[in-house]
Design the sequence.
């Protein structure tokens, strides 16, 4: 795993180095909850509102240039606004895996 992954997902340290890739795959498959879905939807709405422009009296070459500029602005904006919700989902998935693993490892009384 890359050190950046360990920075964003500190629970990943609880897994062995050989198990980290599989743990991340399972965590990424965790379904989104309501907060995450709402946050991503809000990020899309905000990004759309910020990068909106009118093209009624603009020539084709200018439209293409405006679309390219909007793309360059929208991608980092979406990463900044929606990224934390995707990171939250993976962290939640890792915590769930750790909880299941600890539940199986706990001695029976």
Sequence:
């Amino acid at each position: 795993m890359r050190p950046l992954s360990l920075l964003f997902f500190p629970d990943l340290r609880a897994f062995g180095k050989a198990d980290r890739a599989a743990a991340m795959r399972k965590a990424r498959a965790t379904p989104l909850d309501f907060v995450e879905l709402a946050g991503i939807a809000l990020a899309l709405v905000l990004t759309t509102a910020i990068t909106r422009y009118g093209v009624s009296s603009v020539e084709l070459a200018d439209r293409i240039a405006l679309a390219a500029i909007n793309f360059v602005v929208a991608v980092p904006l979406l990463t900044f606004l929606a990224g934390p919700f995707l990171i939250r989902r993976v962290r939640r998935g890792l915590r769930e895996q750790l909880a299941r693993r600890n539940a199986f490892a706990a001695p029976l009384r």
